[in-house]
């Protein structure tokens, strides 16, 4: 009897550690994804100003609008289909793929210098973000007991809003001191 009780306690401790680890990873990637969406918007003035040393040749305000908007559109419109895909192929696997796509696109975006490639890879990055958001919530739902889900969702969603909030300020500092490409490079280590 004592052995069974100790096994249950060990299992509960291991499950709790796994839930905390998953919540930490999901919250961090949600923060980074939201940060990337909001931090980049402050780069518009230096990227579109022909007198700026960081100017992207041929990029104007309308093109910059597409670069910013396409990320949001991809993230919003792809979450439902990607949620279904994660149900069919495994949430963890799809989550990891989303993280790889998001991070790879950020790295590539840091080297791009044309409006067309920035729009294309910003869409790809938004697709990675959609994979992260769609599967992150599903993973939390599947590993947290119902009575603890609200707390887990609050932490995860709070990290999204924290990313959206600090993105413009921190993005402004990054763009001012390191250039607009560094906004993308800053999310690669995550």
Please sum up the structure shown.
The protein has 190 residues and is mainly alpha-helical.
Which bin fits the share of residues in helices? over 70%
Name the CATH superfamily classification. Answer: MFS general substrate transporter like domains
What is the helix tally? 7
**How many domains, in number, for the residues?**
1
Which outline best applies? elongated
CATH class designation: Mainly Alpha
Query: So what's the oligomer here?
Result: single chain
CATH architecture: Up-down Bundle
> What does the largest sheet look like?
none
At the third CATH level, what is the topology name?
Growth Hormone, Chain: A
- C-alpha-based Rg, rounded: 19 Å
Structure description:
The protein has 190 residues and is mostly helical. The protein has a single domain, classed as MFS general substrate transporter like domains (Growth Hormone, Chain: A). Helix content is 83%, strand content 0%. The chain is built from seven helices and no strands.
């Amino acid at each position: 009897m004592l052995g069974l009780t100790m096994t249950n306690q060990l299992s509960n401790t291991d499950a709790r550690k796994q839930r905390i680890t998953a919540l930490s990873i999901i919250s961090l990637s949600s923060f980074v994804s939201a940060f990337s969406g909001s931090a980049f918007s402050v780069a518009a003035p230096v990227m579109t100003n022909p007198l700026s040393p960081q100017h992207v040749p041929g990029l104007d305000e309308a093109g910059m609008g597409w670069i910013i908007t396409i990320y949001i559109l991809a993230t919003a419109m792809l979450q439902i289909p990607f949620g279904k895909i994660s149900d069919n192929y495994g949430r963890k696997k799809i989550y990891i793929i989303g993280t790889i796509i998001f991070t790879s696109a950020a790295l590539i975006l840091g080297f791009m210098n044309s409006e067309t490639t920035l729009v294309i890879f910003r869409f790809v990055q938004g697709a990675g973000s959609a994979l992260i958001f769609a599967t992150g919530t599903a993973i939390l739902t599947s590993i947290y007991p119902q009575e603890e889900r609200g707390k887990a969702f609050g932490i995860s969603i709070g990290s999204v809003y924290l990313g959206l909030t600090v993105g413009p300020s921190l993005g402004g500092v990054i763009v001012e001191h390191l250039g607009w490409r560094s906004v993308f490079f800053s999310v690669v280590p995550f």
